């Protein structure tokens, strides 16, 4: 029997809530996560029509990319579409769950889905975030070192890019003297001890600090293990905004725009002046990505694909890059596929359906 919480826990292991931006409101918005799951409907946006669609299917969990509640609701009177949508979800006992900028900010998330659609080679985070990594330093008897490290690895520490079980080790001598109230693993009370120890250093994502410390305490032989935790300013190359990669073959700008239109199923593209030369290096960001324009230019991308540029912001291309504004909905619509693929790969016993409702508030003629 699968609980709604099981699905949420999996999604949050893939895109931890700690990686969402400060302004965001990802997570469970309505409902009881302990309830038994009847089915999952995946959408980009939450609307009244989507709630009715889930009800007609008999599903009690809707996973959306965009949270419908960004700010606190002071009343639920049905005076606008946000209130009406939330009221319907509560009335029908449907859980609403949003996975927004935390899914934007992880490798193989929203932006990597765009890279996949465009068949980009060697996609990487365009603007990696710093201040998300921590380092644990502890001292362990040499004989117990491997057991402690194994426990830390299982807790999620020691992963760097494509490498796991990463640590630094240095042997030395540890000293201590236990008092009469202690139960020392080595030595006797009121007697100085000198122990051959290993200093171990291991990196981990800051949001799993509790699990890492618990693993250390559970596996360490000492009654009071000594350890330090340091906040690192290193960039986390696995977490951040946007994506950058290269086409398999360079293309003329006009040919690439046609390719982009076809691959992303676009009806229109707004773009700045096309530059001499071919398109080879491509940067992209789902949703509003104008804040990444400087990063795309610094990394010498030939084109930057995103949405929601304001008129005067297009001038910032300044003859250095082509800006292709493909629309907010259009840049993120394949996020629905991404979520479905993740769930279908990891849950074989639940129903997962893409919403048939087009929630794009913009039309083109």
From TrEMBL:
Tell me the residue numbers annotated for binding a divalent metal cation: 65-66, 104, 328, 332
> Which Pfam families does this chain map to?
DUF34_NIF3 (PF01784)
SUPFAM superfamilies, alphabetized: NIF3 (NGG1p interacting factor 3)-like
Judging by the UniProt lineage, the source's domain of life is: Bacteria
Cellular component terms per the entry's GO annotation: cytoplasm
GO terms, molecular function: metal ion binding
Keywords, comma-separated and alphabetical: Metal-binding
The yes or no answer to whether the keyword Signal is present is no
The cross-references to InterPro entries, in alphabetical order and at most eight, read: DUF34/NIF3 (IPR002678), DUF34/NIF3_bac (IPR017221), DUF34/NIF3_sf (IPR036069), N-reg_PII/ATP_PRibTrfase_C (IPR015867)
Q: Which PANTHER family match?
A: GTP CYCLOHYDROLASE 1 TYPE 2 HOMOLOG, NGG1 INTERACTING FACTOR 3
The family annotation for this protein states:
Belongs to the GTP cyclohydrolase I type 2/NIF3 family.
How it assembles, according to the record, is: Homohexamer.
From the Swiss-Prot or TrEMBL record, give the protein name.
Answer: GTP cyclohydrolase 1 type 2 homolog
